[in-house]
Amino acid sequence: MPVYINGKPVIDTDGNIMHCHGAGILEHEGWYYLFGEDRRGRSRVSCYRSRDLVNWEFRNICLTLDSATKRHYVRTDLRLAPMNSGPMTPEEAAAVGLQPIGHRGANIERPKVLYCEATGKFVMWMHFENGRDYNAARCAVAVCDTVDGDYVYMGSFNPVGNMSRDCTLYKDEDGTAYFISSARDNADMIVYRLSEDYLTVAEQVKTLWPGQFREAPVVIKEKGRYYMLTSQCTGWNPNQGGVASADAIEGRWSAIRPFGNETTFNTQPTAAVKVGDTWLYIGDRWDPSNYLNSTIVMLPIKFDGGSCSIDWADEVNIDGGKITASAREISDVRVMLPGCVEYLGSDGYSVFTRKLGYADPALIWQREERDGSLLLRHKESGKYLSCEGILDNCRDGESRFLWEELRGEKGSLLVSRFSGKSLLVHGRRVILTDAEDRHFEGYTFVKNY
Ligand code: DGJ
Questions:
Q1: Mutate-to-test residue for ligand 1 from 112, 133, 163, 166, highest number of ligand atoms within 8 A of CB
Q2: What is the pLDDT of residues 80-116, one digit of tens each?
Q3: Percentage of the chain with pLDDT > 90?
Q4: Nearest to 379, CA basis, from 394, 365, 393
Q5: Number of separate domains in the chain
Q6: Whole domain around residue 379: which residue ranges?
Q7: What is the pLDDT of residues 253-311, one digit of tens each?
Q8: Are residues 233 and 322 in the same domain?
């Protein structure tokens, strides 16, 4: 039975790690085609295919910095890379929040592909940045005669003059296609109806949730209702996902309700696919410490009264269209800090903030309850967080290791049972401060999904 394991890299049928992130999925002639980011060298968009979503065959790098270009009938910018561009420096990569992986040139994110019946062509839309920062905020289009061939790049542009970052495509049952992307520095989500050939925008039809700063849109239609999954904007860190619904794409959308848990189980939406009667959510588990360790998570979606949800599953069994999922008990946690930007780690003595990295054992903690108090054990060193804000060996009953967890709306506050002071992050270090000095949102304990 094909089993998809969440949180692990996918090994393709050639034995290589699959690099296909921010992906879109297209069903074509009995195959699922996955198009996604491959940032290595001069590659930009990779394509894999599968019959069961578990065994993936590498097909092509469909877009590279050296792809053929063709003028569009609207004015676009055809540049993909400066002449003879070489590898990015660590500084250049850091400017876009990444490690140096590829060559200097266009930063292509979230590619999505649709088949256009009217022209018989496959059309790719994507997010384009110049590779130096995120200020271009453009979409770009590429086109191909075959699903997994070499796409011809038709250039980048600002749709209807708008900024355009995280994006998706949606094709309705009547063939009408929509491009949806974050605009106005991510404050708004804009829906565009595409021209009949899918190559450009016909009309800006909707501005959704103005001022709510949403990213990572994915559209699903189930039983005549449209659902849009989105995330908040926290760079490469996961956050609480959201879902809204409407009975027409161009109609009135509901408010955004929570989707998944406070980190969407450490993922950000990128696509969804229906297998048999079940929709599968596809999310990126970005690894901010090492982008190449990012993995893909698939979780079955449950629909209920105009909304939908997901639960965590370690394994998803995909058996001839019937999907079952299973999850183990998880006791390890990471401590996510206010603002969702960093996590609490330790070198076995001091406690300090670190960038999220799923392979980093220094970030794993265990919560223990003792006589109504909380103890925080650093898993790698086996030591406990003391009221001095360091790690130490803990003898039974010592009150300097006992904490009270005060749960607030935006996380927990840890107050020492010994000193009454609360734990606060100051720069990269933790300090203990009088409770009344606190001015932060609190800690969130996230299971090690
Ligand atoms: C979040 C977006 O969803 C990703 O596609 C990427 O643009 C990162 N931000 C960059 O920080």
A1: 166
A2: 998 778 999 999 999 999 999 999 999 999 999 999 9
A3: 88
A4: 365
A5: 2
A6: 332-447
A7: 999 999 999 999 999 999 999 999 999 999 999 999 999 999 999 999 999 988 999 99
A8: yes
Q: Are 164 and 139 in contact (CB under 8 A)?
A: yes
Amino acid identity for residue 376 in this structure: L
**Co-location of 311 and 418 in the same domain:** no
Q: How far apart are CA 108 and CA 128, in angstroms?
A: 5
Distance 96 CA to ligand 1 centre (A): 9
Q: Which one of 45, 215, 231, 266 would you pick to mutate in the ligand 1 pocket, going by the greatest count of ligand atoms within 8 A of its CB?
A: 215
Residue nearest to atom 8 of ligand 1 (CA): 235
CB 103 within 8 A of CB 96: no
Domain end (from 293, 326, 359): 326
Backbone angles phi, psi at 46, to 5 degrees: -100, 160
Ordered strands of the 268-275 beta sheet: 268-275, 278-285, 295-304, 307-310
Grouping H, G, I as helix, E, B as strand and the rest as coil, residue 394 is coil
Residue 22 CA: which ligand 1 atom is closest?
5
Q: Which residues have any ligand 1 atom within 6 Å of their CB?
A: 22, 97, 109-110, 166, 215-216, 235-236, 268
